[in-house]
């Protein structure tokens, strides 16, 4: 899904324009779009670290600074140096080194004074305080979203005259004229037909309710897509593919900003309430990461270091899943298994704490009024039998087939949206899909209810007092011991429910393909779970009836006697939900933990594990990528998957640039180039950094300097260092040699030079190079031969080479 709809305005280099240097840079030509820069209205939500460089000041090549002294760049830090442009990759090694230096300095100073010791303690405690704030804010927003979405979903069917702020369930709770059997019917709750034509009976009343249902759905969807389009283009989708990319080191300014948080929170409620086949669980991860990113600005330790900030975002993702499913442990494992790129032990502890605080906050709010964190919490008491592993594995096969089918068809539809006129009309697309969904959903009670309520209904283990059609069994017994009901023959209501659920399954399978990826917040967890839960319930009821009527068969007679409670259809629904979710996302460990946290029972771990692993094996056999990895590749994000092995026998010299017959590598020399020479190289290229060599003849490597640091340092010198002009010589050496009299002052930039860039020889196998890029998070790696610089390999080059080796289009690795 193309997340951005910001304007792409031509910013070709204009002589003297300092902005043009910055806007044309890319991450080592990561986005090779000459003369073009991507600009979004939301990018100011996350300002560059270490101070903002004023965008409207021109770089005119002249301008002597007001200071009359020679600036020593080795002693005085330059604001902006060490930060990154938008749509660039961070340097993990440099960021971790900077954090170690900062920590070492604080530790040394703590021995000098009491105040420094207090500062050291507060610095160590700041991470835990930040986790506390993230948990509190994430839990509060999740509670607000749950309450609002529940109320607005019921608003499509009617309102509560006893209090407009009550949803249907709470409205009848407060009523004194309601019986237990008809607990969803009370005089205080009025359908739209009762309000408009004063009756709820007859065909005209049905048409009025039908019309109002569709009208409210269209209104909610229109508001959602309009707010996203106008105020925050980044607020659409689930956000998990982009968060995975950001956590791998890529910078997308504004994606986790304040406007994205506000709009995503509002539009998520609207999108869920519209009745579309989507969920709020994935977007809640995005919301939690927005909270984490914004709160990072309150702490210098995290505001000024991109690597440390990503540790916080990993913990925030865990908090997001914790409040989405009421599963703190599952949230931590989800962050570790699915989204995080760098996950040290310290982050594991802090993720656990953030998830704990977020779950506690949501539990305190109690959004569903049942003392549970999710609507579909359920407890089962009947043990499962070994033979039932067969239908559980069948559900796993179904989940794998569904996952592979969904990924292929959804990616094909999203690619069509990106490459045709369809992508230019997001509002129309959302309204059309909403209208089709609402029109087809209203006649069927299982599609009319919210997907979370549907899953709750399917997970439910029928009791004596259940009035649902799914529990309409014939009661052929006198007593029930311990509250457990024996297997019973299905009644008319059960058979009717089976047909309706079969139709619901077909609708959910088809409509979810077209819904996921539209320009509204849309999660995939709940629709996938609903598909699996329906299939599981259908299979569970079938097994239950088979055991009742044929309990004397060999497969049943050893463990299922007549009148016993043998089969639990709700358990099959839960296993099916896990299987389908696993088939789409390829989650395994975290999925099983989330599901057993939902049920509160450890004895069902084996069925869940069997279904999850089977679905993953089947889905992997039909396609290696999960839905999030597929969307990352579709959008051309520079994400280097750490789970896949590179098994091809190629060498660094086969991938590096320049190739044979290409122009020579653009380099800087350590002591023979003027300011004008460097400015000319910056203006004529789009590279984000340059190797520095002793001389062009020797090509002996000295270090590597980033384009942004060069630009900022030269601009700063022109302002503050007296006498720096275009003919001033730039030195990257420790000491500048004596200069003849009447020559312009020299400019020493050794402090911005990386003196230890990663290098490999030209004969290094690419499998080692790929491992280095994955494990160290490199932006680029220099290639040498006998100590002489030969070329450079960037992250983009590695991604294009991997795509080429997999017989894919290398040009698909373009940030789009």
UniProtKB/TrEMBL annotation:
Catalysed transformations (reactions): 2 chloride(in) + H(+)(out) = 2 chloride(out) + H(+)(in)
Keywords: Antiport, ATP-binding, CBS domain, Cell membrane, Chloride, Endosome, Golgi apparatus, Ion transport, Membrane, Nucleotide-binding, Repeat, Transmembrane, Transmembrane helix, Transport, Ubl conjugation
Listed Pfam families: CBS (PF00571), Voltage_CLC (PF00654)
Compartments where found: Cell membrane; Endosome membrane; Golgi apparatus membrane; Membrane
One Gene Ontology molecular-function label: ATP binding
Membrane topology: Multi-pass membrane protein
UniProt key word Ion transport: yes
Residue span of region Disordered: 1-28
UniProt key word Transit peptide: no
Domain CBS: 656-720, 752-812
GO cellular component: early endosome; endosome membrane; Golgi apparatus; Golgi membrane; plasma membrane; synaptic vesicle
Domain of life, per lineage: Eukaryota
Bilayer-crossing regions: 125-145, 210-235, 312-336, 386-407, 427-444, 497-517, 524-543, 571-596
Annotated InterPro entries: CBS_dom, CBS_dom_sf, Cl-channel_core, Cl_channel-5, ClC
Main location, first listed in the record: membrane
Subunit field text: Interacts with NEDD4 and NEDD4L.
Role: Proton-coupled chloride transporter. Functions as antiport system and exchanges chloride ions against protons. Important for normal acidification of the endosome lumen. May play an important role in renal tubular function. The CLC channel family contains both chloride channels and proton-coupled anion transporters that exchange chloride or another anion for protons. The absence of conserved gating glutamate residues is typical for family members that function as channels.
The family this protein is said to belong to: Belongs to the chloride channel (TC 2.A.49) family. ClC-5/CLCN5 subfamily.
Protein name (database record): Chloride channel protein
Organism: Equus caballus (Horse)
Gene designation per UniProt: CLCN5
């Amino acid at each position: 899904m193309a997340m951005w709809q910001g304007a792409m305005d031509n910013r070709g280099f204009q002589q003297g324009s300092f902005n043009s240097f910055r806007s044309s840079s890319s991450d080592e030509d990561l986005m090779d779009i000459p003369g073009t820069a991507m600009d979004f209205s939301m990018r100011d939500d996350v300002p560059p670290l270490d101070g903002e460089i004023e965008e409207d000041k021109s770089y005119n090549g002249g301008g002597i600074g007001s200071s009359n002294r020679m600036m020593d760049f080795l002693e005085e830090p330059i604001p902006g140096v060490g930060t990154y442009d938008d749509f660039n990759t961070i340097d993990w090694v440099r960021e971790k080194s900077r954090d170690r230096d900062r920590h070492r300095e604080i530790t040394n100073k703590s021995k000098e004074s009491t105040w420094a010791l207090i500062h050291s303690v507060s610095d160590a405690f700041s991470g835990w305080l930040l986790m506390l704030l993230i948990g509190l804010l994430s839990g509060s927003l999740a509670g607000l979203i749950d309450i609002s979405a529940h109320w607005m979903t019921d608003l499509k069917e009617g309102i509560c005259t006893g209090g407009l702020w009550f949803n249907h369930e709470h409205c009848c709770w407060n009523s004194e004229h309601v019986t237990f059997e008809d607990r969803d019917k009370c005089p205080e709750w009025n359908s739209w037909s009762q309000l408009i034509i004063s009756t709820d009976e007859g065909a005209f009343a049905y048409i009025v309710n039908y019309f109002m249902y569709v009208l409210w759905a269209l209104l909610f969807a229109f508001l959602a897509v309009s707010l996203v389009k106008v105020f925050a283009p980044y607020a659409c989708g689930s956000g998990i593919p982009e968060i995975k990319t950001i956590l791998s080191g890529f910078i997308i300014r504004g994606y986790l900003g304040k406007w994205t948080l506000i709009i995503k929170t509002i539009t998520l409620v609207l999108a869920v309430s519209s009745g579309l086949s989507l969920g709020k669980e994935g977007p809640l991860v995005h919301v939690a990461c927005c909270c984490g990113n914004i709160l990072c600005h309150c702490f210098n330790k995290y505001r000024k270091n991109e690597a440390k900030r990503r540790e916080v975002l990993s913990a925030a993702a865990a908090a997001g899943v914790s409040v989405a499913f009421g599963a703190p442990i599952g949230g931590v494992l989800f962050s570790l298994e699915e989204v995080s790129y760098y996950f040290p032990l310290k982050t594991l502890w802090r993720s656990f704490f953030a998830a704990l605080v977020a779950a506690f906050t949501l539990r305190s709010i109690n959004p569903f009024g049942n003392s549970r964190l999710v609507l579909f919490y359920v407890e089962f008491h009947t043990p499962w039998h070994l033979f039932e592993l067969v239908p559980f594995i069948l559900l796993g096969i179904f989940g794998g087939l569904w996952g592979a089918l969904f990924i292929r068809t959804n990616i094909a539809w999203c690619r069509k949206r990106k490459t045709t006129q369809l992508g230019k009309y997001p509002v129309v697309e959302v309204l059309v899909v909403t209208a089709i969904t609402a029109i087809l959903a209203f006649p069927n009670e299982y599609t009319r209810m919210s997907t979370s309520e549907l899953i709750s209904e399917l997970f439910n283990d029928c009791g004596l007092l259940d009035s649902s059609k799914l529990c309409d069994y014939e009661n052929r017994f006198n007593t029930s011991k311990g509250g457990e009901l024996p297997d019973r023959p299905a009644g008319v209501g059960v058979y009717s429910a089976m047909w309706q659920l079969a139709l619901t399954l077909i609708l959910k399978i088809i409509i979810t393909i077209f819904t996921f990826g539209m320009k509204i917040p849309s999660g995939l967890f709940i629709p996938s779970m609903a598909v699996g839960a329906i299939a599981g319930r259908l299979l569970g009821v079938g097994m239950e009836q088979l055991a009742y009527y044929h309990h004397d068969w060999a497969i049943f007679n050893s463990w299922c006697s007549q009148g016993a409670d043998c089969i639990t259809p709700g358990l099959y629904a839960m296993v099916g939900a896990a299987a389908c979710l696993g088939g789409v996302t390829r989650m395994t460990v975290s999925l099983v933990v989330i599901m057993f946290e939902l049920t509160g029972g450890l004895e069902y771990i084996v069925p869940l594990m069997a279904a999850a692993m089977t679905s993953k094996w089947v889905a992997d056999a039909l396609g290696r990528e999960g839905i999030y990895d597929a969307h990352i590749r579709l959008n051309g994000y520079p994400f280097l998957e750490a789970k896949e092995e590179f098994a091809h026998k190629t060498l660094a010299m086969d991938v590096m640039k320049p190739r044979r017959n290409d122009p020579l590598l653009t380099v800087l020399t350590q002591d023979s180039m003027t300011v004008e020479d460097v400015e000319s190289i910056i203006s004529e290229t789009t590279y984000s950094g340059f190797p520095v060599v002793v001389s062009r003849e020797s090509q002996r490597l000295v270090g590597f300097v980033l384009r942004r640091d060069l630009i900022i340092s030269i601009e700063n010198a022109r302002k503050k260092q007296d006498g720096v002009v275009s003919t001033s010589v730039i030195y990257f050496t420790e000491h500048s040699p004596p200069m003849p009299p009447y020559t312009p002052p020299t400019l020493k930039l050794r402090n911005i030079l990386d003196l230890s860039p990663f290098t490999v020889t030209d004969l290094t196998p690419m499998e080692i190079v790929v491992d280095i890029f994955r494990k160290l998070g490199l932006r680029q790696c220099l290639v040498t031969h006998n100590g002489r610089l030969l070329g450079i390999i960037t992250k983009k080059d590695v991604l294009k080479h991997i795509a080429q080796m997999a017989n894919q289009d290398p040009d698909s690795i373009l940030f789009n």
